[in-house]
Amino acid sequence: MPSPLEHIDWFRHTSPYIRNHRGRTFVIHLGSGALDSPVFPHLIHDLALLHLLGIKLVLVHATRGEIEAALDALEIEGVLHRGVRVTTEEVLGVVRDVVAAQRLQLESQLSAGLPDSPMHGSKLRVVSGNFVTARPLGVVDGIDFQFTGAVRRLDAVGMSGVLDNDGILLLSPLGFSLTGEVFNISANELATAAAITLGADKLIIMDKASGLLDDTGKLIRQLTVDDAQRLAISDSAQAEHRDAACRACDQGVHRAHIISYEQNGALIEELFTHDGGGTLISQEAYEQARRATVEDIAGVLDLIRPLEDEGILVRRSRERLEQEIDNFRVLERDGRVIACAALYPFGDSSMAEIACVATHEDYRRGGRGQHLLELLLEEAKEDGLLSLFVLTTQSAHWFLEQGFSEVSLDRLPTERQALYNLQRNSKVLIRQIN
What we know:
By secondary structure, the protein is of the alpha/beta class. It has 2 domains: about 5-285, 3-Layer(aba) Sandwich (Carbamate kinase); about 290-430, Aminopeptidase, CATH 3.40.630.30. The protein is built from 15 helices and 23 strands. The chain has helices spanning about 5-15, 15-20, 40-50, 65-75, 90-110, 155-165, 185-200, 225-230, 235-250, 265-270, 295-310, 320-325, 370-380, 395-400, 415-420, and strands at about 25-30, 55-60, 80, 85, 125, 130-135, 140, 145, 150-155, 170, 175, 180-185, 200-205, 220-225, 255-260, 280, 285-290, 330-335, 335-345, 350-360, 385-390, 405, 425-430. Strands 5-10-2-1-13-15-16-14 form an 8-stranded mixed β-sheet, sandwiched between helices. It has a 7-stranded mixed β-sheet with strand order 17-18-19-20-21-23-22.
């Protein structure tokens, strides 16, 4: 069990996330079955916490599984075509009952505030209403979908007004037509449309699964939209969530997340830790390699100081690092420098030194150092250099695995030989660029 000090240390490290999330708009899609999950009361507490931290929340609740269960209980035969429910007048009555029951459940639980509970004193204001204008889906392949609809438009002004007045916006998967009819619409479509219309910072899809899986069944932590769209997914619900996330990101939503509502604390873990607990989809890579700037000096120092203390790297002063920062390349993850490496060309020798290769201890064994090395190799090739060398005391084997060969000191440029520290007795390794 974590000690109180570990809890305090974790809380301290949430401050950048609290600062970045405050005032942002998050659309949260509560997947079918979420409200009946044993951990749902904890999720309610987490939603209240996010609101109290200044995050603008839009909740969209899905009803598909609950509608199917209600139809079975009433012995009403439901019809699906291309995975979409045909909503007859009889089915629409069931849909309305399920939606109303879920909305009341959410409103009542978000209204709780007993002493000695996480909700004490929160006094949340939950607002729902006729924000969704729908149109009939119509006839497809000769099948009349009757009261099944699609989102026609959303009342962006009214929705923003709720959020700007410190309310939590609750959207149910029903839409209303200009003729006064009620239509059953997809919660996935509604959540995506809401995120796009509001220019939300995040679309968070909560489902049974922890996120998207690769072909070995392993959770994929992050994907670009292009990579996500190429991912083969056999589960139709997961494919639908993936498509919704990609569509939202294509339309300007900064990031989409797919996490599990069955995992207690999944929402907090996803939003307030570096690696999260589900799958993140974004238009650009979550981790990006780039040239370092003066703003990265503190992050680079945090990486190399422990290795300098162990004698693995030669100590660099902050002043020296400021002078040499243009030689560094960094790997950034969600605004944090997690790896670095430097390239120092040597005059007319056609050689350059690789130095200061370091990766944060939480992200080692992920190929990040190798990735930066390959980027520096390509850069050296473009600059017309013929070889790279490195001096190391403890990482010789790693460099050998990257194609370097151990050589004698006299193979180095003369000016670098003059700087060689005999006391460190570093091994010299060279790699030919071609």
